[in-house]
Please model this.
Amino acid sequence: MILRASEVQKRFESRWVLRGASLALDRGEFVLLQGPNGSGKTTFARILATLLAPDRGSVEIEGAMPEKNRRAARRAIGFASHQPLLYPGLTPLENLSFFGRLAGVPAAESRAAGLLDRFLLTPFARTPMEHFSRGMFQRVALTRALLPEPRLLILDEPYAGLDDEGAATLNQLLGEAKGKGAATLLIAHERERAGALVTRTAVLRDGVVEAS
Amino acid sequence: MTLIDVAIKDIRLHARDARFLATLLLFSASLVLILSVAFGPIFQEPAREAAATLWAALFFAGVLGLTRSLDLEGESGGGDAVRLAGADPYSIFLGKTLANFLLLAAVFTLTLPIASVFFDVGDLPTLPTLVGVAALALLGYAAWGTLFAALARGLKARELLLSVLLFPSLVPLWIGAVKCTNALWAGGSIEPVRDWIKVMAVADVLGLALAAFLYELIQEASE
Model:
């Protein structure tokens, strides 16, 4: 198992957002996680991505607790969320080269340039991102998540802001990652956009994951 | 190399934010100007008054700079992405400290001549020693500031908490800096107050060493 979350619970002040959510992903699996607004999907994603600690329960990445070797666990994960997780004052290429070097990606700049090209962002690769549209931000954010060729992708609403062309490119890249054995957890409201990539669907409701 | 990459990234972001840089530099220059008018035109003890003014201006400008540095990490989740990259947390800390140090050094470089002119203090032979004193004080400020900025990250009252935490930890550095600057400008030597150099060096080492143990912990706990 590349990811195993067991009985994860999380509370914000007095409100329990997650009440024992469990989920496991194997290599090459593509799981779509759905759920109503406010059901805790983003919180669950942040916990699985090791950005947030659960109050109870456990998460294992590649069979190990992330707390034991946080750096190794994080280098296995590619994460994209509502926030772009980028520096708007930098250009896409500067952002991606910076994060690539931090993550130890070999030839980070040329790989970043290649991915930006796939998302049709080459003309904007050296333009500071401050005035980028939502969709352009999203393309760069997804490129950042895919850059280190992670073994586990956690993508929270990755299609938000993407046009059909962007969504198609994303699906192509996710298909390639799946082909190389990467597991993907996709959090999205619409199943149609992920198309045939999805191998399993789960629903997060009342803080618990229900298989569907 | 993570340290250099992080420092370059922060410096690049600061350098591109003309509004922030203008605010920072105008603020420190204005403070020196206002206090020189308040103390003057006939100064009682120009070296002492100029030293106090210079370091007060640097302290407040530093809080502005650290707060901006903190905002850069939070506004679009860049700080989270840095954590996710799985880089060595202490190298990240050192990179941010280096960038903050260079920012403070730039403010010092601008403020020093203004203070020298308006208070009519300082000369070229004492300049290298003064630069050394400033390097010690600003390195400590950058180290403690970066550490506490990480602690304040994600909190609603982060600017307030940053100032409250910074003030007591910077007392030895700032007393040392004011005393050494005063001694240099008044008597041309820091010999009478040389023990303060040791105090400042200890504060620097303590800030840098403490971060080696606490930075990762603080980063992870601030969520």
Notes: The mean pLDDT of chain A is 92. Helices of chain A lie at 41-48, 70-75, 92-102, 108-118, 134-146, 164-179. DSSP finds six helices and nine strands in chain A. The radius of gyration of chain A is 17 Å.
